[in-house]
Design a protein that fits this description.
By secondary structure, the protein is of the alpha/beta class. The protein has one domain: Rossmann fold. The strands form three sheets. The protein has a four-stranded parallel sheet with strand order 3-7-8-9, sandwiched between helices. Strands 4-5-6 form a three-stranded antiparallel sheet. The longest helix is centred in the N-terminal third of the chain and has 21 residues. It is globular, with a radius of gyration of 17 Å.
Length: 265
């Protein structure tokens, strides 16, 4: 796994630039909603505090004078987090508890999550698909846009209203926690049980953690919110990795965590 992480640039020297990460850290410190992605930090995070946290959790440089170049993720930290991620999958599978899986990176991570959904479903977990087809109004840099909540192989995402709804057209990129909130509201309205675990990225993992629902997922070095959520005890596991490499490079990660969790794919 370590060799694959480095070869695929999921860890080691990654595509995420230091400039982009520092920009997002500054946004987070200023409590810009675009960087908070559904999390409301309990503490007053300053730039130095955030840099030290990201250094501990990801392996990036915590030196504020290091202001350019590529970010670096420690593959050993990624493997430790993958093991913890798998342990949470094993626990929820043993309980046969309901789960909700969603992504703001469907072009890259759909296959990774779909494999997890299949393994958990085979283990007896209900993979929830609430609010199918519901509209979600999300503020973007182009203004408020209306998307449609959709599911592919048990994985939630948002699509443009005119999208066909197939795996070949996997959906839109978003950091918003609003799709998660729409999904959870639909579960509550229907009187069904809330998920025992939310698996996802961006607003899915941060939004769930903020609402007190256990959440796990991957995050890149330019998204500090999930790592802050983990440090503050509201997100269970965050796996540091590059979230924009080729989609097939995540398949070995799916196999790794399912095998460790003793789940079939």
């Amino acid at each position: 796994m370590r060799a694959h992480l480095l070869a695929a640039r999921l860890a080691g020297t990654v595509a995420t630039t230091r400039e982009r990460s520092l920009s997002r850290y500054r946004m987070f410190v200023a409590r810009d909603p675009r960087a908070l992605i559904g999390l409301e930090p309990e503490h007053d995070w300053r730039m130095g505090d955030l840099l030290r946290l990201m250094g501990r959790q990801c392996g990036v440089s915590d030196d504020p004078r290091h202001a350019s170049g590529q970010d670096v993720i420690d593959p050993d930290r990624t493997i430790v987090a993958l093991d913890a991620f798998a342990d949470r999958l094993a626990a929820v599978a043993a309980a046969g508890a309901p789960v909700l899986i969603g992504t703001g990176h469907p072009h890259r991570l759909l296959g990774f999550y779909a494999g997890l959904a299949a393994g958990l479903s085979a283990a007896g977990c209900t993979v929830l698909t609430p609010a199918q087809g519901r509209s979600v109004d999300i503020t973007t840099r182009f203004g408020v846009r209306t998307y449609r909540l959709d599911y592919v192989q048990g994985v939630a995402m948002v699509r443009e209203p005119g999208a066909r709804g197939s795996r070949s057209e996997p959906g839109a990129h978003t950091h918003s926690p609003l799709p998660l909130r729409v999904a959870l509201a639909a579960v509550t309205d229907a009187g069904g049980p809330l998920p025992a675990l939310v698996i996802g990225d961006h607003g899915w993992v941060c939004g769930a953690g903020q609402l007190g629902i256990e959440a796990i997922g991957p995050a890149d070095t330019d998204d500090p919110a999930p790592f802050v959520g983990e440090a503050e005890g509201r997100v269970s596991v965050v796996v540091p990795l590059d979230d924009t490499v080729r989609s097939d490079y995540y398949r070995p990660l799916t196999r790794y965590v399912l095998n460790r969790a003793c789940l079939s794919q």
